[in-house]
């Protein structure tokens, strides 16, 4: 779905260590199909299929929407936008770029409006030698902020300083699910930090009309290490996110066992 929803937009590359890619909405999916698929993806980022099936069994379909609003989906707009950016980023890295994304972090919230600590998304290429970790810093904005890139730069530096904490978190969650392949590989990354490559990534999910390439120019002047920047441009972002979450509330339901690349149920 992500490969049909988003397509590359030609951009001018800045000088220096920043590599810039822009993705814009395509016309391959009609609105109803897009909302249905994005809504389902939002729901599965907060609940695994087994949990969702139990909710349906316990409550019945008529009460599930109220349960999701009260216990899973944030009602704080800022938190909801931040969560949506992480959901888009995880989907992009899993389904289009074919990285391993072993955990969906939003499932581990204790309260709907909680901001989960640590890296926004962790993505891996375990089979490369040496193995590679992508650490995307995600920012979602419906209004213009020209220093957005500088803000993301500072946030990414803090996350990289504490990367092992996020790796431990991922390892513990994979151990709970008895995913031994992921446990072994994550443990190796922790035991041998000098034998891993850490890539700096940023993803900005941004309202199309509020975007200016000056954001990229300012960031490029700051970056001193190779950094991959992806900007996902969405028209009417605030309304778009609201409609996606409404689709998640009304259309949530058990569908099938997850087989998405790099993520288990």
Outline the secondary-structure elements:
Blueprint: H1 2-5, E1 6-9, E2 18-25, H2 31-46, H3 49-59, H4 61-71, H5 77-96, E3 123-125, E4 132-141, H6 148-161, H7 163-176, H8 180-191, E5 197-207, H9 214-222, E6 227-234, H10 237-251
Parallel strand pairs: 2-6, 4-5, 5-6
Antiparallel strand pairs: 1-2, 3-4
Helix pairs in contact: 2-10, 3-4, 6-9, 7-8
Largest sheet: 6 strands, mixed
Q: Strands of the biggest beta sheet: in what spatial order?
A: 1-2-6-5-4-3
Helix-strand topology string: HEEHHHHEEHHHEHEH
Quickly count the domains. 1
The total count of strands amounts to: 6
Quaternary status:
single chain
Uncertain runs? 256-261
In whole angstroms, how far apart are the ends?
A: 19 Å
Count the helices. How many? Answer: 10
Mean pLDDT level: 90
Given the C-alpha coordinates, what overall shape results? globular
Q: What portion of residues is helical?
A: 40-55%
Instruction: Report the portion of residues in β strands.
Output: 15-25%
| Rg, alpha carbons | 18 Å
Supply the helix-strand structural class.
alpha/beta
